[in-house]
Structures are given as C-alpha cells and as structure tokens.
Design a protein that fits this description.
The protein is an alpha/beta fold and 188 residues long. The chain has three helices and seven strands. Strands 1, 2, 3, 4, 5, 6 and 7 form a seven-stranded mixed β-sheet that branches. The longest helix is centred in the N-terminal third of the chain and has 22 residues.
Length: 188
C-alpha cells in the first residue's frame, strides 16, 4: 500500500504541485501508521516499525528545516583580516561555516551574522575583543557560545564577553543562528 502512495504521488507530482517530498513522506508515514493500528488489533504489524522509524526521521528532517533559504550544501571557511572584509551575513543552507575573526585588528567595530538551515557553525573570536552575542537554534541544536551552553529545541544563549583585557579594543556584535545543528563561539 505504501508503495502505491509513493508511486501515485510520483505520477501526480508534475500535475499537482502539492505533492512535494515532505507531503509524500507524510502520506507514507500515515499509511504505515494505519498498518500499525490495524496490526495491533489483528496481532501483527510489528515489522512496519522498521520502515516507519527511518521514514519518520527523514520526515522530521525535511519539515524541521526551512529549505526556502539558500540551497547551498557545502563547507565554507572565512578569515577576514580587516573590518571592511567582514560581511554583514554569512549564510548557508546545509553544511558548515567556520568564521575566524582572530586576525582582525585590535580596534574598530564589526557587526555580522552567521546562519544555516542545517549544519555546524563555528566562530573564532580574538582573545581581547569585546563580544556581544546571540546564539540560537530554532528547531533543535547544541549551543556553546563563550562558555554559555544550551541544547534541545528552540534554545538561545546571549550575552557580553569583554575578553582577557576587559573593556576596550575591537568590538564585535555577533548573531549566530541555525534551525538544526551545532553552534560554537570560541576564544582561543
């Protein structure tokens, strides 16, 4: 029955735009769940669990992540050396971003954001810079931002860290956001 749903969806997809991958996965999950329900009364159906589990995880992944953003799948690394080289936003769809700000000058002001739908975001900051930061995972994630940690669904940490020398020097205003993934802001 599940194969009929998937095959029918594949045939209908060019004609009915509603049949997207998340919808087809949802239909297949519904058919398998109905099979489990009927099987519970008939004394069978346990074998469907092994089909339902990976399909459910896939369904979660394609619906928890906003794929309307950039369609980039990659691993990128940036190391700006001047205030002017720092972009307003570093953005990726799926993958990892490593932003290394440790070679920045010891004075000036920088404001930037690092964002992904699904992936790992790592930002290295200079030891003496004054950092104002917000780290956020909107669906599920693990955050470790200048010693402040959180994990789970829809988590956020924010704060200010003045570095080893106290107030003064380079000022960095940093927003790091992922829908699903890991966020790290590190001083090394």
């Amino acid at each position: 029955m599940t194969m009929l749903v998937v095959a029918g969806s594949a045939i209908a997809a060019p004609f009915v735009p509603w049949f997207t991958a998340p919808h087809v996965i949802g239909l297949a999950i519904a058919v398998l769940a109905a099979g489990l329900l009927v099987g519970s009364f008939a004394g069978g159906g346990r074998g469907l669990i092994w089909l339902l589990l990976p399909l459910s995880l896939t369904g979660f992944a394609v619906t928890a992540v906003d794929f309307d953003g950039p369609a980039t799948v990659s691993s990128v690394s940036y190391t700006p050396k001047t205030v002017e080289e720092v972009q307003d936003r570093y953005e990726i769809g799926v993958g990892s971003v490593m932003l290394d700000l440790r070679q920045m000058p010891s004075s000036g002001e920088v404001k930037t954001a690092v964002e992904s739908d699904l992936g790992e975001l790592i930002v290295h900051v200079p030891p003496n810079a004054d950092i104002t930061f917000t780290c956020n995972a909107t669906s599920i994630g693990e955050l470790n931002c200048l010693g402040r940690q959180a994990e789970g669904g829809d988590v956020q940490v924010d704060g200010e860290d003045l570095g080893a020398d106290g107030e003064g020097g380079l000022k960095i205003d940093l927003d790091v956001l992922t829908n699903v993934g890991e966020v790290k802001v590190l001083r090394d």
